[in-house]
Design goal:
Blueprint (H helix, E strand, L loop, with lengths): L2 H28 L6 H19 L2 H9 L5 H19 L2 H24 L2 H23 L4 H6 L8 H23 L13 H14 L7 E5 L5 E4 L2 E6 L6 H20 L15 H15 L3 H15 L7 H8 L16 H17 L7 H13 L25 H20 L3 H6 L4 H10 L9 H9 L6 H15 L2
Parallel strand pairs: 1-3
Antiparallel strand pairs: 2-3
Helix pairs in contact: 1-2, 1-3, 2-5, 5-6, 8-14, 8-20, 9-10, 10-11, 11-16, 12-13, 14-15, 14-16, 16-20
Length: 489
């Protein structure tokens, strides 16, 4: 084999081991016995040590020095391997292992603290996670901005300052639109209790309707819905609520957006650096356009209304228009993943500001809960009632995912741009959705974005799909139009 072929074979094995590590994480969230947390931490640390050693192996530098790309995809593979190699070598192996072990253990402690409403029980391990991630960020930044180094793990090419400018431009309009909406009467809500088995059955029907291939995937329950894996093994989780089936349905559709992206990447890229979603922002654009612009559209909710009547009988909603308003109701609430489409980005902006301050050292872990509660009251107009609705609600910080949160709003921005392009490219889209048929919409996304995986940079992936520069203006216009119609503003 020539140098490129040797490098690619070595990288495939590393990618395969990374998938195994991901499967351990999936098991921890879904099926692992409650008492296995400490051992799982050691297992995760061990495999992270192997991965770090492979990703920083000096042989990679030798192969890179002489490898010649056979085509454009090969050039992209070399680009990604070089980037990953340079980045991995900046982080000491012992630090990488320690982060893997502590974050695995921290996840279990977070889950228990959340169940017990006990912030104090979680703060010591969070303090350790933050210290380790700061150390990692300093190693990666090499004297630059630590938070920028964290963001680069999830969205290369974007800085904390870039994000702050975008969010500062978006926030006033979101706050104003929310204020106008909340002055109006609330839509009629669902009534009664909804059988869990029927929820999960309809959830699976929705997953298939949006193109999820269950031959290469599965749906399980978890406290915090997520998607795991790539290529031929992509798994999603959802959750249920006896009084709120939308929690189950739209958690599923959201995660299927992630899963479809992974399943639809060109199989020629399988187990290469191009074989998954290019960034979390682009990934989130898929989950959000599936969930919101398609799944919460007037047309699709008309179809879903009929399915729910079949499954649950009378649940207090008289017609499809009332159901559409109920699906998109703007309401007071605490939980980001349960937030309505209008207020969701405000939740993200709150977390972005806090985690950026944590990474720069401007906010201590001990002051985090108070800072969260103060910011929430300022942004939403009411106080956090309990920790599980506040600083303990998300899993991200417990597992060290600093820099991840802003990609949720980037994904919304990208989704707004993609939807604008999609509606121009697919005539009569609403007629399809009214029949529960997402095929032409999801095929357009597969053709123009998903199949390309990591071939291009995150921004160039969006530019290629929409034919222009992404901005927040399409999202702004979409939200204004949608909620003005629903609430008769």
């Amino acid at each position: 084999m020539n140098a490129f072929e040797q490098l690619l074979a070595f990288s495939r094995d590393t990618q395969a081991l990374g998938q195994i590590a991901g499967r351990l994480g999936w098991d921890q969230e879904t099926m692992m016995p409650a008492g296995a947390g400490a051992q799982r931490g050691e297992e995760m640390a061990a495999i992270e040590g192997v991965l770090h050693a492979r990703r920083s192996d000096p042989k990679i530098a030798e192969w890179l020095a002489s490898a010649e790309a056979p085509d454009a995809a090969g050039a992209a593979i070399l680009r990604e391997i070089r980037y990953g190699y340079d980045r991995t070598r900046k982080v000491p192996a012992d630090l990488a292992r320690r982060i893997a072990q502590v974050t695995s253990e921290s996840q279990a402690k977070w889950a228990q603290a959340r169940a017990d409403e006990d912030v104090a029980a979680f703060l010591p391990v969070l303090e350790e996670v933050v210290a380790l991630k700061r150390e990692e960020g300093q190693a990666l930044a090499e004297g630059g901005d630590v938070y920028d180094a964290m963001v680069a793990d999830y969205e290369r090419g974007v800085t904390g300052s870039d994000l702050a400018k975008i969010f500062d431009a978006m926030r006033p309009g979101l706050v104003d639109l929310r204020a106008r909406v909340l002055e109006k009467p609330a839509p009629k809500a669902l009534e009664g209790r909804f059988d869990e088995g029927k929820q999960l059955a309809l959830s699976e029907q929705l997953a298939v309707a949006f193109g999820y291939n269950l031959n290469n995937g599965r749906i399980d329950k978890a406290v915090h819905p997520f998607c795991s894996g790539s290529g031929q093994d992509v798994r999603v989780t959802t959750r249920t609520s006896a009084t709120d089936p939308f929690n189950c349905f739209y958690s599923t559709v959201h995660e299927v957006g992630h899963a479809a992206y992974e399943q639809n990447v060109d199989q020629a890229y399988l187990l290469t650096p191009l074989g998954g979603g290019v960034s979390m922002g682009v990934h989130e654009s898929q989950s959000r356009i599936y969930e919101n612009q398609l799944g919460r559209s007037r047309a699709f909710t008309g179809w879903l209304f009929a399915q729910m009547q079949t499954s649950f009988g009378d649940f207090g909603i008289e017609n499809a228009d009332e159901f559409y308003a109920a699906v998109n109701a703007v309401h007071r609430g605490y939980i980001r993943t349960e937030s309505d489409e209008l207020q969701y980005n405000l939740h993200v902006m709150l977390r972005f500001g806090l985690e950026r301050a944590l990474m720069t050292g401007d906010l201590s872990v001990g002051d985090l809960e108070a800072a969260w509660n103060d910011r929430f009251a300022a942004d939403f107009g009411y106080a956090v009632d309990k920790p599980s609705n506040g600083v303990l609600q998300d899993v991200h910080w417990s597992v060290g995912l600093f820099g991840y949160f802003p990609t949720y709003s980037l994904g919304n921005i990208y989704a707004g741009c993609l939807y604008e392009a999609l509606t121009q490219a697919v005539p009569n889209l609403e007629a399809d959705l009214a029949e529960g048929n997402t095929r032409r919409a999801t095929e357009w996304l597969r053709e123009n974005l998903q199949q390309h995986g990591g071939l291009r940079s995150p921004k160039d992936t969006i530019v290629h799909a929409i034919g222009g520069e992404p901005t927040h203006e399409p999202l702004k216009g979409y939200l204004e139009k949608k909620f003005s119609e629903i609430y008769d503003l």
